[in-house]
């Protein structure tokens, strides 16, 4: 081989030896870059998944908070209605207690004594006491004492249960009263207080039936205005706002300048405010 060719081959080998490490290093650097990029992609995907889970949890917490607020609102509305009912009943009993009792002439009829002043006043408001002429007639004719015949003792006992908070006992006594004393003058009051007891127990459909009995069967009773009022209250509690408003407006139109009319106006205003 000529010397010149041997020299050229040696130069090529030397250049190859020098360039070989450089090529290997470049390939290694490219591989490391790809690995770094892949790790960043994987890390990014994990972070995205984590952020998605956090977002879902936040939405679930917001949903639960909304449901909790709705439940709290419903509980507050129920408690508010219960307070209104008890306050209304207490106010009406207070009005009865504040009325002056009607004096009665002495009677020798052996009837149960009235030992509760509030019952005396409720009877006075209802106009159910016997007049002196009626008492004299009963004595002269040797008839059965009016208080016994009309069921006065049973009626007073039922009112005592009602005002003592024994609503089921009161309902049992009031429910049996019409069959036991079918001709009693206390019947419109008995049906009215049945309605009141059902109303306090939140048995509004039954309360409406009792108040309707007073309105339809005893139109001349002075309990009709109160029965109309409480029928409107009961209708509102059942969700029948249109009927409730009609009953309350009827109270205002037919019985102006009465406590029932004033209470009807207050309830109508409240219904309108709640509707807004």
Could you characterize the architecture of this molecule?
Belongs to the CpoB family. This is Cell division coordinator CpoB. One of its GO terms (biological process) is protein trimerization. Keywords: Cell cycle, Cell division, Periplasm, Signal. Its main location: periplasm. The protein starts with a helix and ends with a helix. 79% of the residues lie in helices and 0% in strands. It has 276 residues and is an all-alpha fold. It has helices at 3-98, 117-126, 132-140, 146-149, 152-163, 167-180, 187-200, 204-217, 224-237, 241-254, 259-275. The chain has two domains: 1-69; 148-276, Serine Threonine Protein Phosphatase 5, Tetratricopeptide repeat. It contains eleven helices and no strands. Helix 5 runs antiparallel to helix 6 (167-180) and helix 7 packs antiparallel against helix 8. The protein is rod-shaped and about 155 Å long.
Largest sheet: none
| Highest CATH level, the class of the largest domain | Mainly Alpha
Low-confidence runs (pLDDT<50, min 5 residues)?
A: 100-120, 126-147
Integer tally of domains: 2
**Rg to the nearest angstrom?**
44 Å
Give the count of helical stretches: 11
**What share of residues are in beta strands?**
under 5%
Distance between the termini: 112 Å
The CATH architecture designation of the largest domain is Alpha Horseshoe
Structure summary, number of beta strands: 0
**Structural category:** mainly alpha
Order of helices and strands: HHHHHHHHHHH
Shape: rod-shaped
Concise account of the structure shown:
The protein is built from 11 helices and no strands. The protein is mainly alpha-helical and 276 residues long.
